[in-house]
Amino acid sequence: MPDLHDTQPSRSYYYQPRDQGPPAPPRFLFWGVILIFILVVAGIAGVVIGFREILKPAQQQRIIDQLPFMSALRRPTPAGGVFPTLVVAADDGGALALLDMPLDIAAPAATEPAAAVTPTKPQPTPAPPTETPQPAILDEPTPTAAIEQTTETASEPVVEPGASAATRIAAAAPSNTLPSAARISGVRHQQQTWNNCGPATITMALSYYGWQQDQAYAGSRLKPNREDKNVSPQELADFVAEETFVKAIVRMGGTLELLKRLVNEGFPVIIETGAMFEAYDWIGHYRVVIAYDDSLELFYFFDSFLGVGAAAQGVATSYAQVDSDWQAFNRTFIVVYEPQRETLLRALLDTHWDERDAAQFAFDAAQAEARRQPQNAFAWLNMGTSLVALDRHEEAAVAFDQANRTGNLPWRIFWYQFGIFEAYFAVGRYDDVLSLARINQNNSSELEETYYWQGRVREAQGNRAQAESLYRRALAYNPNYDDARDALENLN
Question: At residue 107, does pLDDT exceed 70?
Answer without folding.
Answer: no
